[in-house]
Amino acid sequence: MGPTIELAYQLRICLATAFSLYLKTHNYHWNVTGPNFSEYHKFFGEVYQGVWESVDDYAENIRTLNEFPLGSLAEFARNSAILEATDNIPAYAMFKQLEDDNRILLEELSKAHDLAVESGAYGITNFLEGQIDYHNVLGWKLKAFTPLM
After folding, report:
1. I want to staple 69 with a disulfide (CB 3.0 to 4.6 A). Which of 51, 62, 75, 117 is the partner?
2. pLDDT given for residue 4 in this prediction
3. Angstrom distances, CA of residue 78 to CA of 11, 17, 115, 140
């Protein structure tokens, strides 16, 4: 497998994982409860919107490599590095789960970044660096909600 094909494959994993993170966060936005509902609901809304805005960019970067992005929920589920949310859980557990999932996405983004650098795909490298920056900030924000965990 050549570096460009390998990069496209890794970008598909990032796409699926980002989409899964978006969907899980949107689920938590809908289903969070508790005394801090308003604050948590708003925060989850900001997160899912931020992640959602990147999803199309993953797909377009895959297309710049003359490959095709994933296009079905089944493909996203098979290729995501994180699991979907199937149960309602307490708010503190939602934050912890998103923190863990965000860390996993960062690991996948790092793999894609290394492949993009190796391939000389500078535009994709820049995109991935922006995503890594976004998810690093998101990581500390999520951790701030669960400092004792």
Report:
1. 62
2. 84
3. 14, 10, 22, 28
